[in-house]
Amino acid sequence: MSQNGIVLVASVSILRDDKVLMIKENKPNAVHKWNFPGGRIEYGEDILHSARREVKEETGLDVKLIAAAGVYHFISRTKNQVILFHFIGEVTGGSFKLEEDEISDSKWIKISDLVTFENEDLREPNVIKQIIDNLLKENVHSMSVYHEQLIQ
């Protein structure tokens, strides 16, 4: 969602055992860049619903959001002011199928190996490296700080 020049984004680190799912995007502004599943929050959409929806659209997986890994503010490569809500999720269902138009590859990678990504291989390297650092330090927060949307 873009409102008053601010883009709101939700993304998710999907955990399985000691690994996290990374996707390689194939979007015009992010060709062959690794990222966590996620995308723009639609106007009026609940943040938590948006995170689950984006994961489902990009990977075919259903997830339960189990923790928050931070809120990040940055200016994107495309010069948008972005506020990104990042969550930790675990798979609860669905079947794995990448969104072919926007995602070219994926891999499950050990959390400790996330640091091996080169900056030029990441969508927004400064932000992704902060998220990786929080994952490694297990610096995550309770989901109780988020409440489902109250406005109808």
UniProtKB/TrEMBL annotation:
Pfam families documented for this protein: NUDIX
What sequence ranges are listed for the domain Nudix hydrolase?
5-133
**Which family, according to UniProt?**
Belongs to the Nudix hydrolase family.
State the PANTHER family in the record.
Answer: ADP-RIBOSE PYROPHOSPHATASE (PTHR43736), DIHYDRONEOPTERIN TRIPHOSPHATE DIPHOSPHATASE (PTHR43736:SF1)
Q: Which residues form a coiled coil?
A: none
The uppermost taxa in this organism's lineage are: Bacteria, Bacillati, Bacillota, Bacilli, Bacillales
List the keywords (alphabetical): Hydrolase
Q: Which CDD domains would you find in this protein's record? A: NUDIX_Hydrolase (cd02883)
GO MF terms held by the record: hydrolase activity
Q: Does the keyword Transport apply?
A: no
- The keyword Hydrolase is annotated on this UniProt entry: yes
Q: What is this protein called?
A: NUDIX domain-containing protein
